[in-house]
Write a structure and sequence with these properties.
71 residues, mainly alpha, membrane, transmembrane
Length: 71
């Protein structure tokens, strides 16, 4: 899955940037709500971004190792 996303980031960098910004906004809002309201229900935002963050990290590593020579 991360290999496919690495190829996707090469073909569609603006959509990848939008995905990163969206996850950053979710992280910031969840962190703010968690601190402000002291309700653990807002910690779900951190769980929501954990899987895409792992995919982005593995895709970045794959892209750096294997796709940089092709670009």
């Amino acid at each position: 899955m991360y290999k496919a996303y690495a190829h996707f980031t090469v073909k569609h960098p603006y959509i990848h940037g939008f995905n990163l910004i969206t996850l950053l906004v979710i992280f910031m809002i969840s962190g703010y709500q968690l601190l402000e309201n002291e309700n653990l229900a807002y910690a779900a935002g951190f769980l929501l971004i954990s899987i895409p963050t792992l995919i982005f990290a593995k895709a970045s590593d794959y892209k750096r190792k294997y796709l940089s020579a092709n670009s």
